[in-house]
Amino acid sequence: MHPDLVAGKPFPDLTLPDHRHQLVTLSEFASGFPLILSFYRGYW
């Protein structure tokens, strides 16, 4: 596991592309509200 990903600690402020391919940081997306980021393994 990456050392920045520790249970109970704040999640790193990632920058990812949105559906229009513009970069958005998680802190911008949340705009000060709580944010739940869920990763799951699907069947593609």
Shape, per Cα inertia axes: globular
Strand order of the largest sheet: 1-2
Q: Stretches where pLDDT falls below 50 for ≥5 residues?
A: none
Distance between the termini: 24 Å
Topology as a string of helices (H) and strands (E): EEH
| Number of continuous helical runs | 1
* Radius of gyration over all CA atoms, rounded: 12 Å
User: What portion of residues belong to β-strands?
Assistant: 5-15%
Largest sheet: 2 strands, antiparallel
Judged by helices, strands and strand pairing, the structural class is: alpha+beta
Write down the oligomeric state.
Answer: single chain
Mean pLDDT: 82
Give the number of DSSP strands.
2
User: What share of residues is helical?
Assistant: 10-25%
Fold blueprint:
Elements: E1 15-17, E2 23-25, H1 26-30
Antiparallel strand pairs: 1-2
Keyword list:
single chain; alpha+beta; two-stranded antiparallel ribbon; 2 strands; 14% strand; Thioredoxin-like_sf
Can you walk through the features of this model?
InterPro entries: Thioredoxin-like_sf. By secondary structure, the protein is of the alpha+beta class. It is built from one helix and two strands, in the order ββα. The protein has one helix at residues 26-30, and strands at 15-17, 23-25. The chain is globular, with a radius of gyration of 12 Å.
